[in-house]
Every structure is written in structure tokens, then in C-alpha cells.
Amino acid sequence: MTTESTGAGVLLIGAGGLGCGTALALAAAGISPLTVVDDDHVEESNLHRQVLLSAKDAGRPKVLALAETLGERFPSVKVRPIAQRFDAANAVRLLEDCDVVVDGSDNLATKFLANDACVLAGKPLVHAAAVGTGGQLLTVPRGGRPCYRCLFEELPAPEADAPSCSEVGVLGPVPGVLGALQACEAARILRGESPAFAGRLIRYDSPLMTMGAIRFRANPSCRVCGTHPSITAASLEECVS
Ligand SMILES: [Zn+2]
Fold first, then answer.
1. If you write DSSP's letter for every residue of 113-160 in order, what string do you get?
2. Per the residue annotation, which of 20, 98, 150, 165 is the catalytic one?
3. Quick check: is 2 in a domain?
């Protein structure tokens, strides 16, 4: 059973641990075309969780190595690698060319930007984050409410000590679990079904082997999807910097 997109397909942000797990699952679901955007290069120290990259690729752009590996394993899946950072300058253009956005990035600034850009463009966003031995998922539905910012509101200040995967590491299998769930959710949306994670924050804890859901509603004061938004297309770059 496959889920072949008849349109512009999926934009996957990130080709690291989570991005690799998600890309593998998206390709296994037959989702095509698959556009992957990331400006990072392959480092041997991260390969334990980057299942589509290998030591022979060290120093190469991750998206190129990822596209080659997927192309060999899934020749019917069209992969478009874009060796750029997903940023405010290219977000609008990249979102124009996709049906669904899947966030496989590894930093909060990109996650807030992905949310804001998708809300403003009216594109569905399947969010996930993997840190340490667990992670989380939620979906911003087409139309943008409720969104990631309804729940998390503001990008923490750099000194706020928010843990990142580069600082605390990620248990190798965790991005695979989250990536598989992201791909299932993207496939639902492409089939025209309601997203399973809209208005629900899914939390996965691998040591406890638990997965729980917290329901949340749209925040009328949300800065991007609320009744008086202060984040607009024109202010996007300033808001995420
Ligand atoms: Zn919101």
C-alpha cells in the first residue's frame, strides 16, 4: 500500500537524525515527490541516528547523500534535494511547491519559522522534535488553527537553557519512531483525511515506553493565528531572528 501524491508532494525540513527517519518512512509510504531542505554537512559523530547517511559521505551536503540513498532504495520516489537552510528568505517559495510540510529540523528557531510560515500560507504542518530519549509531535492543520505557537508561544531566549539534540544527544531509535509517525500523518493528510494530531500534543517517552496525548485549543491571543496577529508575511523575518 502506498500513498502517492498527485500534486506537489511533501516538503521535509531537515536531513539530520529526525529528517532521515522521516524521509525513510515517507519514501516507504510511496510519497512522491519529496523535497528535502537542509544546509548541513555529514559528520561522522552523528551517524548513529542518521540512518540514510554513512561515513563515506562525511563532509558532503546531507541532502545530496540522503537523496542518493533514497534513490537507490526507492527508485520510484522523486527526491529533490535543496542544500539551503530553511529560512525566512526562502520559506514562502518552498511552501508554494508542496501539499504538506513535515518538520524534521533539530532547532527551535526553525520550528517556530516553519509554524509561522505554514500558518500564513495555509499549509498543513506535521511537527516533531526528538531530544534525549523521547520526543513530541503535533499537526498544524490546513488553515492554521490551532498552531505550534498557540501552545509554545515564543522562541525561548538563547540563555533560557532549552535543551537541544546537539547538546543532550538523541537515542538512535527515537527519531525513527517519530519519523514513522510523521510519515503516517503526512500520508493521512495527502489522502484527504483529517490529521490525527491536530490540537493534540503527542509525547513519546522511550524509557517508560509511553505515548500520551495532551489536547489543546487555538489561543485567541496567538501572535500568528489569533484574532489580532502581530506576525505577518512582512514581519516574518524580523520575528524569527
Ligand atoms: Zn496559533
1. HHHHHHHHHT--EEEEEEEBTEEEEEEE-TT--S-HHHHH-SPPPGGG
2. 165
3. no
**Residue 68 sits in which domain range?**
10-240
CATH number, residue 49: 3.40.50.720
Task: Return the H-helix or E-strand segment holding 81.
Answer: strand 79-82
Asked if 134 and 174 touch (Cβ cutoff 8 Å), the reply is: yes
Residue 228 CA: distances (Å) to CA of 117, 121, 125, 148, 231: 17, 17, 22, 17, 9
Decide if 131 is inside a domain: yes
Residue 241 CA to ligand 1 centre (angstroms): 19
- Number of domains comprising the chain: 1
Tell me the CA–centroid distance for residue 149 and ligand 1, in Å.
5
pLDDT at 2: 56
Cα of 109 vs centre of ligand 1, distance in Å, is 16
Q: Would you state the pLDDT for residue 3? A: 56
pLDDT < 70: residue spans in the chain: 1-6, 159-167, 237-241
Residue-averaged pLDDT of the chain: 92
Is 86 within the bounds of a domain?
yes
Q: Within a 10 A sphere around the Cβ of 200, how many other Cβ atoms?
A: 16
165 is catalytic: yes
| C-alpha 229 – ligand 1 centre gap (Å) | 9
Cα(112) to centroid(ligand 1), Å = 11
23 belongs to a structural domain: yes
